[in-house]
């Protein structure tokens, strides 16, 4: 499982990379515009925090293949490192994915609501496909089952592309995606923290500390007690 953070907030990215085993950062035009700053400054800031090896997924905003390709080449040259250009699975996007594959620029097919969209994008050459789990659930679909179908299709046809499940509103959706073999998930900072939180974990840790300190002294650790 690859854990990816879905934000353009530098503080949140720094915290996630400090504490958790992060494989990358995803952004989209909405996420970037929330920061309300020059987008290149934001993206270069992210790259500086995560380093050149970590994945950074950045979306092209054009609606024609020609322009998407131009954006992808531009983003690749100015941001650099392990970059994936997110391209929506409209027909012009699939055309752009094919061209970018030939040019050696990595893509993540995005705005995916059906397994067939994912399969076509992967066959066209996308490295990742991003089904929108919660947005599917919101229209009375089953986001986890779409992820499961994509995983099955990729296995069946021996396709190298990976699922990057996105658009989560709760930890249970992330858990269910993991159970059906989703290769990676991108989650916002709140869900990332919630994935680890449990009141009984905190209670247990406090009890361990209290019991230890009642015998060995307040603030003493295993190193301090001789
Ligand atoms: C991935 O980067 C997607 O754009 C993102 O997860 C969508 O999430 P939302 O449905 O919460 O906006």
Structure description:
It is found in: Cytoplasm. Its main location: cytoplasm. It holds the Pfam family TAL_FSA. One of its GO terms (biological process) is carbohydrate metabolic process. GO terms for molecular function: aldehyde-lyase activity; transferase activity. The protein is of the alpha/beta class and 226 residues long. The chain has 2 domains: 194 residues, TIM Barrel (Alpha-Beta Barrel), CATH 3.20.20; 28 residues. The chain has an 8-stranded parallel beta barrel with strand order 1-2-3-4-5-6-7-8, surrounded by 7 helices. β4, α5 and β5 form a beta-alpha-beta unit. The longest helix has 18 residues. It is globular and about 70 Å long. The N and C termini lie far apart (42 Å). Bound molecules: erythose-4-phosphate (E4P). Erythose-4-phosphate binds next to α7.
């Amino acid at each position: 499982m690859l854990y990816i953070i879905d934000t353009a907030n530098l503080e949140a990215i720094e915290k996630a990379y400090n504490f958790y085993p992060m494989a990358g950062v995803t952004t989209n035009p909405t996420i970037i515009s929330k920061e309300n700053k020059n987008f290149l400054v934001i993206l270069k800031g992210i790259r500086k925090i995560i380093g050149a090896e970590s994945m950074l997924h950045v979306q092209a905003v054009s609606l024609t293949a020609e322009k998407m390709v131009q954006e992808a080449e531009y983003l690749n040259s100015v941001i650099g490192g392990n970059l994936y250009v997110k391209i929506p699975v409209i027909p012009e996007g699939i055309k752009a994915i094919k061209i970018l594959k030939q040019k050696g620029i990595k893509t993540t097919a995005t705005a995916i609501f059906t397994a067939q969209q994912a399969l076509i994008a992967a066959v066209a050459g996308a490295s990742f496909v991003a089904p929108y789990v919660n947005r599917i659930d919101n229209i009375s679909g089953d986001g986890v089952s779409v992820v499961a179908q994509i995983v099955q299709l990729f296995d069946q046809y021996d396709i190298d592309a990976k699922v990057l499940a996105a658009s989560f509103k709760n930890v249970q959706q992330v858990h269910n995606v993991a159970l059906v073999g989703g290769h990676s998930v991108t989650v916002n900072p709140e869900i990332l923290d919630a994935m680890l939180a449990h009141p009984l974990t905190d209670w247990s840790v406090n009890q361990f500390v209290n019991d230890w300190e009642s015998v060995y002294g307040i603030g003493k650790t295993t190193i301090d007690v001789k």
